[in-house]
């Protein structure tokens, strides 16, 4: 088995044994409630599953216990059967499945208890003190666990089905700090004193904590690459620059991750910031254009709450108290039609951005509807068509940049500036496609665009230098500055249109556009319009209807409804 990420018709694409793959997968946390067979019957062949080294709960924010046994949870023992059973469950249902397991490398409780000096100063809200990502001792111990684990994997009968690995860890498996204070402990202070002897400022320390997290992920990814003979793709959760705009998330060293040859794909959930207003659409959590610029594949984790989404306690009462995971964000959508609207919006995002995805059936049974499964089957069929189009690259003529170092300027570890969310919503509803980048890529890509924007939670020298470049080269730009930034899309739209940028919709709805697709997600009910830059053949996909030619597509959608069209 061999896998890689290659440029295919303009976007990074997953290849397995030399063949491009439709990157839409399925995963669940609750093995006994997995719907592998249903997704296999719908044509899905790409799957993931969660495998843990340790036995701690994955989320420090709630009181739920661990959902599964950890391979190394008993000192001196290695229970690889937990991995074997997880893979076998998938293959029993889908014998030709291609699997990229999520490998949670957070250590077992016994290791943390034996190494208090390698842990954070505090546990979140009085919880146990967790490993410090800056700890050299922890990194070496984890690499030893990895060596033991892959020695077993190399002897397993599943090798022909394993197409990659996702290195997970930290809070919620997403490398967020477990203390929500940036992962501070004796190990982080000692390492900081060594690497930054001339600058011991708080700002430098905050930035160091983010860099240390990235370096830990890169080091472990390198180990996995070596242990798999550099034949399989390796990825991770990382880079939530826009969704986690507080420095203690320690996700703000993306530029280093993007230059790491051992990391092939990055992933994140679809944004949570608009989940309670699904009609708004979901802005992305990270700077996807930067990820693609560096030749890496991005995966959306579509943990879409369907109308069938139950609560964690109902699925695993032995792990979850009745009053945990009950906030509004966990509640189901009100109807099957509302579910289809959200799923179509997810699908349109994936095609328009040229990325991958997996459906996260979190507690199981969230997609148990013949109508939903029929729709998810159609997505695979359509993705195969889109994947083989000659031009899959985006159509954006505008790009927005954010400097990852800006968050280190804030003292409060959990301070969330308003600019990242407000800017994303304004851009999303402007009717104009925007590419989103981390600032380190500015000078490599800026001349591709007719105008740019800067999302500025706090000023930095990097932003000032980029703005000077724009002034010197006559490139118009917008600034979405903290305290002066609104979700109102009209100023963005007016500025873009005044500089000759085509607007696909001027009514404030979320629009997703690529060379071959256009979709509108209705923010309000009533008449809407999509305006194409030229007359084209339009094929309505969702809802399906006969093809027609048009330069303008009139619509009449209900609030939250999504209409998706293929363009020829």
Structure description:
It is a single chain. This protein has 568 residues and is of the alpha/beta class. It folds into 3 domains: 3-387, TIM Barrel (Alpha-Beta Barrel); 398-498, 3-Layer(aba) Sandwich (Rossmann fold), CATH 3.40.50; 510-567, Immunoglobulin-like (Sandwich). It has 15 helices and 22 strands. It has helices at 36-41, 81-93, 109-114, 136-153, 186-195, 202-227, 254-258, 288-293, 312-315, 336-353, 370-387, 419-428, 442-445, 461-473, 490-498, and strands spanning 3-8, 11-16, 19-20, 24-27, 46-47, 50-52, 98-99, 102-104, 164-168, 233-237, 265-269, 297-302, 356-360, 398-402, 434-438, 451-456, 477-481, 510-513, 517-521, 526-542, 548-557, 562-567. The strands form 5 sheets. Strands 4-13-12-11-10-9-8-6 form an 8-stranded parallel sheet. A 5-stranded antiparallel sheet has the order 18-19-22-20-21, with helices on one face. Helix 4 runs parallel beside helix 6 and helix 10 runs parallel beside helix 11 (370-387). The model has no long low-confidence stretch (mean pLDDT 96).
Tally of discrete structural domains = 3
Report the major sheet: 8 strands, parallel
Please name the CATH topology of the largest domain. Answer: TIM Barrel
What's the helix count? 15
The fraction of residues assigned to DSSP E strands is 15-25%
Radius of gyration: 23 Å
Shape: globular
CATH top level of the largest domain is: Alpha Beta
Q: Give the strand line-up of the largest sheet.
A: 4-13-12-11-10-9-8-6
What is the mean predicted local confidence, pLDDT?
96
Query: How does the helix and strand content classify structurally?
Result: alpha/beta
The CATH homologous superfamily of the largest domain is termed Glycosidases
N-to-C CA distance:
36 Å
């Amino acid at each position: 088995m061999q896998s890689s990420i290659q440029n295919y018709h303009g976007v990074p694409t997953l290849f397995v044994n030399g063949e491009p793959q439709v990157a839409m997968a399925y995963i669940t946390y609750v093995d006994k409630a997995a719907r592998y067979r249903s997704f296999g019957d719908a044509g899905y062949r790409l799957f993931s599953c969660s495998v843990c080294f340790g036995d701690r709960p994955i989320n420090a924010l709630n009181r739920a216990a661990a959902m599964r046994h950890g391979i190394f949870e008993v000192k001196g023992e290695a229970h690889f059967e937990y991995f074997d059973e997880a893979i076998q469950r998938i293959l029993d249902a889908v014998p030709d499945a291609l699997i990229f397991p999520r490998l949670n490398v957070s250590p077992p409780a016994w290791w943390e208890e034996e190494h208090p000096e390698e842990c954070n100063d505090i546990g979140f809200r009085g919880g146990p003190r967790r490993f410090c990502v800056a700890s050299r001792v922890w990194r070496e111990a984890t690499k030893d666990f990895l060596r033991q684990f892959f020695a077993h994997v190399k002897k397993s009968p599943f090798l022909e089905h394993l197409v990659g690995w996702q290195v997970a860890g930290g809070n919620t498996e997403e490398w967020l700090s477990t203390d929500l204070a940036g992962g501070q402990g004796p190990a982080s202070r000692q390492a900081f004193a060594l690497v930054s002897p001339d600058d011991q400022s708080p700002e430098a320390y905050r930035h160091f904590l983010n860099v240390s997290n990235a370096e830990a992920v890169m080091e472990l990814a390198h180990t996995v690459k070596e242990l798999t003979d550099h034949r399989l793709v390796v990825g991770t959760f990382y880079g939530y620059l826009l969704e986690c705009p507080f420095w203690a998330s320690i996700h703000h060293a993306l530029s280093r991750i993007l230059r790491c040859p051992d990391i092939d794909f990055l992933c994140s959930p679809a944004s949570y910031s608009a989940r309670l207003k699904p009609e708004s659409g979901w802005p992305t959590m990270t700077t996807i254009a930067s990820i693609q610029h560096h030749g890496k594949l991005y995966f959306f984790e579509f943990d879409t709450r369907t109308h069938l989404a139950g609560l964690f306690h109902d699925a695993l009462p032995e792990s979850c108290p009745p009053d945990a995971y009950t906030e509004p964000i966990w509640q189901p959508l009100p109807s099957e039609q509302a579910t289809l609207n959200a799923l179509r919006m997810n699908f349109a995002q994936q095609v328009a951005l040229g990325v991958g995805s997996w459906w996260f059936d979190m507690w199981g049974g969230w997609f148990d509807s013949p109508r939903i499964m029929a729709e998810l089957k159609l997505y695979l069929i359509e993705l195969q068509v889109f994947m083989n189009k000659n031009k899959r690259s985006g159509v954006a003529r505008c790009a927005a940049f954010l400097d990852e170092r800006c968050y280190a300027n804030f003292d409060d570890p959990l301070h969330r500036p308003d600019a990242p969310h407000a800017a994303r919503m304004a851009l999303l509803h402007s009717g104009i496609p925007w590419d989103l980048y981390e600032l380190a890529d500015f000078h490599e890509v800026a001349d591709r665009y007719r105008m740019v924007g800067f999302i500025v939670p706090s000023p930095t020298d990097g932003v000032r230098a980029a703005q000077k470049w724009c002034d010197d080269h006559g490139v118009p730009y917008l600034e979405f500055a903290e305290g002066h930034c609104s979700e109102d899309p009209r100023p963005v739209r007016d500025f873009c249109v005044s500089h000759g940028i085509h607007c696909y919709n001027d009514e404030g709805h979320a629009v997703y556009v690529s060379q071959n697709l256009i979709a509108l997600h209705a923010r309000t009910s009533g008449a809407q319009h999509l305006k194409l830059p030229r007359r084209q053949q339009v094929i309505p996909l969702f809802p399906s209807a006969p093809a027609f030619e048009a330069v303008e597509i009139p619509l009449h959608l209900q609030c939250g409804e999504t209409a998706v069209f293929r363009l020829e």
